[in-house]
Amino acid sequence: MADDLKPVYLLAGTDRPKIERAVRRLRGRFPSDAVELESARAVPGSDVVATANAMGLFAAGGRLIVVEDVDAWKTADVKAIADYLAAPVPATVLALIGTDVKRDSALAKAAAKAGESLRWDVTRRDLPRWVAEQFRLQGVDADTDACRALVDLVGEDLNELANEVDKLSTWTGGETITEREVEALVPPRAETSAFVLTDAWGTRDLRRVLDACEALLERSGDPRSRTIPRVVGLLGGHVARVRACQALDAEGVRPKDAAGRLKIHPFAAEKAFGHARNFGSEELRDVTLRLAQLDLALKGGSRLAPELELERALVDVTRRAEAPAKTTG
């Protein structure tokens, strides 16, 4: 074991991919047969201490004990670890992994005193920035809209986001990743995302449209004056795809073939074809016109609040036009 390693590393927070990279670096400092893996959900702190002490008898080359889920430990478990860290076994390193270990907790204080207590968190607002950092770690450039689109499509699970970053980075071949590539290659699956908004509009579910829009505005963390135009652009882009798919459908083109023509993900093409069948061609033209009017209103063409203009437009583009009343002779 290298002399610069400390007796304990507490690695906590919501940034699981970063924690996993730190653990891999630690494991790389030890032979594979010198690493012990445990879970705090199954093993009490006293047993980890016993393992560390036993390993000390054979630890000439250094030993590493990785303990996951230390959030599950109780007061007695933490005390056992803290007592051990007051006089740790030489050449043995503890890597304690958790999510909700607070910086001022007894475990964090004991780890900081004997070694290092590190915490990495990612807030909702910081997710696009976090995605951009993951691309940089892969040596890939991705523009701001691409990072935001990836979060919208995938959601807030950092491991899933990291997996998609890996896939996109492999695909890119050194080219900058834009929103277009993300939409073409990443299947949408976020519970509260741009996909929910466009799908709700495509199925003409007005209540779900309004709820999804509000969720997007609340979640972005940016001022609404910046977020509302993005929502409008997002819906406008989807409407344009739906109109294109409607035209291709009329020609007899299948969704999977349309995906290649339009350079969008096959899943998105299937959805767009389904949405196109819920609107007439004249309706889609009117939707495009109404969104253009909304864009003008948001740029100073209306005295109404942007939120009200947006809500009124969403109602207009989602609900079905009322059939003219029949007259009797």
Describe the secondary structure blueprint for this structure.
Layout: E1 8-12, H1 16-27, E2 35-39, H2 45-55, E3 63-68, H3 75-85, E4 92-98, H4 106-114, E5 116-119, H5 127-137, H6 144-154, H7 158-172, H8 179-185, H9 194-202, H10 206-220, H11 224-250, H12 255-262, H13 266-276, H14 281-301, H15 306-318
Parallel strand pairs: 1-4, 1-5, 2-3, 3-4
Helix pairs in contact: 2-3, 3-4, 5-6, 6-8, 9-10, 10-11, 11-13, 11-14, 12-13, 14-15
Key structural traits:
alpha/beta, Rossmann fold, Helicase, Ruva Protein, domain 3, Zinc Finger, Delta Prime, domain 3, 15 helices
Please explain how this structure is put together.
With 329 residues, the chain is an alpha/beta fold. It folds into three domains: 8-119, P-loop containing nucleotide triphosphate hydrolases (Rossmann fold), CATH 3.40.50.300; 122-178, Orthogonal Bundle (Helicase, Ruva Protein, domain 3), CATH 1.10.8; 191-318, Zinc Finger, Delta Prime, domain 3 (Up-down Bundle), CATH 1.20.272. It has helices at 16-27, 45-55, 75-85, 106-114, 127-137, 144-154, 158-172, 179-185, 194-202, 206-220, 224-250, 255-262, 266-276, 281-301, 306-318; strands at residues 8-12, 35-39, 63-68, 92-98, 116-119. Strands 2-3-4-1-5 form a five-stranded parallel β-sheet, sandwiched between helices. Strand 3, helix 3 (75-85) and strand 4 (92-98) form a beta-alpha-beta unit. Helix 14 packs antiparallel against helix 15.
